[in-house]
Amino acid sequence: MLPAIATLPLWSIIGLFSICAVVIGFAGTRLATIALKLAERTGMGQIIAGAVFVGMSTSLPGSVLSVTTAWQGHTDLAIGNALGGIAAQTTFLAIADFLYRKGNLEHAAASATGLAQATLLVSMLALPLLAYAGPDWTILHIHPVSILLFILYGFGLSLLAEIRHQPMWRPRKTDLTDEDAKEDDADYHPESTLRLWAEFLAFAAITAVAGYTIGESGLAIVDKTGISETAVGTFLTAIATSLPELVSAIAAVRMGAVNLAVGDIIGGNAFDVLFLAASDFAYRDGSIYAAFSPQHLFTIALVILMTGILLLGMLNRERRGLANIGWESVSILCLYGMSIFYLSG
After folding, report:
1. Contact call for residues 32 and 248 (beta carbons, < 8 A)
2. How far apart are alpha carbons 209 and 270 in whole angstroms?
3. Tens digits of residue pLDDT in 185-195
């Protein structure tokens, strides 16, 4: 069944889509600022705050979109949006690197928790591939891998907290290295904790509503133009619903909170893998992993490669490179550009 938005003219649908994208972008900026304050207030640290507060909340639009479209049976849009969002957000980190003029962002944001986040992401991305290639087991139409993804994510967050509090190794400190916030750091923000949480939840709710509307608009665009759901999901809706990650990462970099920027993107990516699990719960015609197409497999392999390159860049810690960004950012930008050419062809 097509959404009611599909009855509107194409220009109205595109206008509504654009308005929601702007709303999501604005809310993402506010979420980044509030998350940084909550990180200092709770002593959680920028990396984990990026994953828990910003990563989850800025991923709400994409999560709502994937779940609601999967519920309606539009698996190509649901899967494409989830995987395309991870590819787009990883590319956003390269854009943030370009705007960080002091040097290479991955050099400045070196931390054990950042590396652990990226490793968790790669591990989570491997599970949908195993579900696709392995037996099509389901429990009440839900694949066991979907349950395992939630368990792995929770286990990963507990490991992140442990690694931050009792790291077994530390990166070599340089003049560009940014220290993550500690529990005893001063809190200079006058707002009460209750007010911060209230604002945080309010802006998160706004992005969720806008994300649902973008999903309905995306389905209407597919109906009006004939563009495939996979292409619309992988690029159009994925980029639009991922705007909070871009805006919040740029805002964090400008505030000098480079660890928050990295935690936002990588943490958001790990949370985005849960889109597939949540979509599997919502999809009522079997396992959603059985609906993977060659384009979806290409995208998931792409994001694994991009994350691997990011990991190598974080370990190598090049101080400056082409256009004052690291070789890993250049590689990620090139890979994303090539994926647009391939998937749009």
Report:
1. yes
2. 22
3. 445 557 788 88
